[in-house]
Amino acid sequence: MNCQQLTVTHKQAWHSATNHPFLLDCRSGNLQPAQFNRWLEQDYLFGIEFTRFFAATLQAAPPNHFDILLSGLTGIKAELCWFHTTAKERNLSLHNALLPAGEEYCRFLIALSHRPYPVLATILWGIESTYSVACREPMASPYDQLFSYCASDTFKDYVHQLEQIADEALTSATEETQSETEAEFLIMCRHEKAFWQMAYEAVA
């Protein structure tokens, strides 16, 4: 089993995670500012927990994977700075409480922290890959600028490298760990779909 096989075997779940109406509205320019703002506020809070999950993955990783993983820290730092800058420009608060979709996604990451490395590496790739795939089609202004990093070649290359190390980890994993990884991948897809949807429900 490898990462691409997961996306093919679970094509519908992957499609739902990477082609949500939230993203379609970003591409058409129909997304309402309040919907984007709520997503941004919540995604910042998720980003905090994602950073801790990244640290857990790095801690479990073999040394020959360090270079690729450590290269991602620059992107995480830039993303967290981007949240602060964009929130200030849009007069938003980054201190609101997590909504249910975000809270459940964060609990999912926390629960994964002590799982086998192949599980962590695959979920790390999966989360980053959803953004890379979601942003591969042009978005309307101003969302084209706001999602520019996820659409960049630099980010695409990084996600490809994450895929390579996740595949390497899965190749040597036991059947039990591979099955566990597949199950967690499906859960991750459901959380991604719910997180996009949260932007609409929160401002309805």
Automatic annotation (TrEMBL):
Keyword terms of this UniProt record: Hydrolase, Thiamine biosynthesis
Pathway recorded for this protein: Cofactor biosynthesis; thiamine diphosphate biosynthesis
Membrane spanning stretches: none
Domain Thiaminase-2/PQQC as annotated: residue spans: 10-201
Presence of keyword Hydrolase: yes
Pfam assignment, any one: TENA_THI-4
EC number, UniProt record: 3.5.99.2
Catalyzed reaction equations: 4-amino-5-aminomethyl-2-methylpyrimidine + H2O = 4-amino-5-hydroxymethyl-2-methylpyrimidine + NH4(+); thiamine + H2O = 5-(2-hydroxyethyl)-4-methylthiazole + 4-amino-5-hydroxymethyl-2-methylpyrimidine + H(+)
Enzyme superclass (EC): hydrolase
UniProt family annotation: Belongs to the TenA family.
Function text: Catalyzes an amino-pyrimidine hydrolysis reaction at the C5' of the pyrimidine moiety of thiamine compounds, a reaction that is part of a thiamine salvage pathway. Thus, catalyzes the conversion of 4-amino-5-aminomethyl-2-methylpyrimidine to 4-amino-5-hydroxymethyl-2-methylpyrimidine (HMP).
Name under which the protein is recorded: Aminopyrimidine aminohydrolase
Native species: Kistimonas scapharcae
